[in-house]
Amino acid sequence: MKTGKTVRESMNETTQQVLPGDTNPMGTAFGGQIVAWVDLAGAVPAMRHSRSTVVTASIDEMHFISTIRLGDIVVLKAAVNMTGRTSMEVGVRIEAENPRSGKRSHASTAYVTFVAVDENGRPTEIPFIIPESEVEKRRHAEAKERRAKRLAARKRLAAKDG
Ligand SMILES: CC(C)(COP(=O)(O)OP(=O)(O)OC[C@H]1O[C@@H](n2cnc3c(N)ncnc32)[C@H](O)[C@@H]1OP(=O)(O)O)[C@@H](O)C(=O)NCCC(=O)NCCS
Fold first, then answer.
1. pTM of the model
2. For residue 157, which atom of ligand 1 is closest to its CA?
3. Which of 20, 70, 132, 140 is the most buried (most CB within 10 A)?
4. What is the pLDDT of residues 4-58, one digit of tens each?
């Protein structure tokens, strides 16, 4: 019988620091580096939830709403919002913390879909997610809407490829 797991069982919070090699010529964080950290931080709840190898199927569009500067501590909070049969949407909230003042600002939010795969790279069934708090239930409902849009986009792309 398929089992369920709570969001708390797999959530992850990690930190990184923006070093000179992570910046663009303006001295602010290079967006591609932030995306790589998002992918890494988001994979942790997906692996914990499924106890499988996971691959990134898609990353929804990302908007950087405030600047992340050289020396900032980047806090990445990741949790499973929703599960399908083999896939999971993981939400990753990115905050930039000034190490001197301690002030934190919301820099971006990303939604990453991971698919659990077996040793042959084939999608494999995962436990369902149990949202408990009001926030988790809201995120779960919103994730269902995003999944529908994502799958419609995937269908359009497949049709174009012929
Ligand atoms: C992701 C992947 C395993 C899906 O395999 P597939 O044969 O298309 O499998 P399916 O059509 O059965 O889809 C499996 C699940 O993935 C989901 N999925 C597939 N493509 C998706 C996409 N682009 N966005 C979101 N979810 C996607 C499906 O909705 C399905 O979810 P469900 O089981 O929860 O309903 C496969 O496309 C793959 O290996 N892609 C490369 C992944 C990779 O290398 N990532 C690293 C970055 S390049």
1. 0.96
2. 23
3. 140
4. 999 999 999 999 999 999 999 999 999 999 999 999 999 999 999 999 999 999 9
What's the CA gap between 143 and 154, in Å, rounded? 16
Collapsing DSSP to helix, strand or coil, 139 comes out as helix
Segment (H or E) for 137 = helix 134-161
φ and ψ of 75, to 5 deg: -100, 125
| Cα distances (angstroms) measured from residue 86 to each of 77, 124, 149, 153, 161 | 22, 5, 18, 19, 24
d(CA 87, CA 103): 35
What gap in Å lies between CA 149 and CA 140, rounded to an integer? 15
- What's the domain count of the chain? 1
Ligand 1 lined by 86 (C-beta under 6 Å): yes
- Is the Cβ–Cβ distance between 15 and 8 less than 8 Å? no
Decide: 123 in ligand 1 pocket, CB within 6 A: yes
Q: How many alpha carbons lie under 13 Å from residue 103 in its C-beta half-sphere?
A: 5
DSSP state of 85: S
What's the CATH code of the domain at 40? 3.10.129.10
How many whole angstroms from 49 Cα to the centroid of ligand 1? 17
Separation CA 126–CA 3 (nearest Å): 8
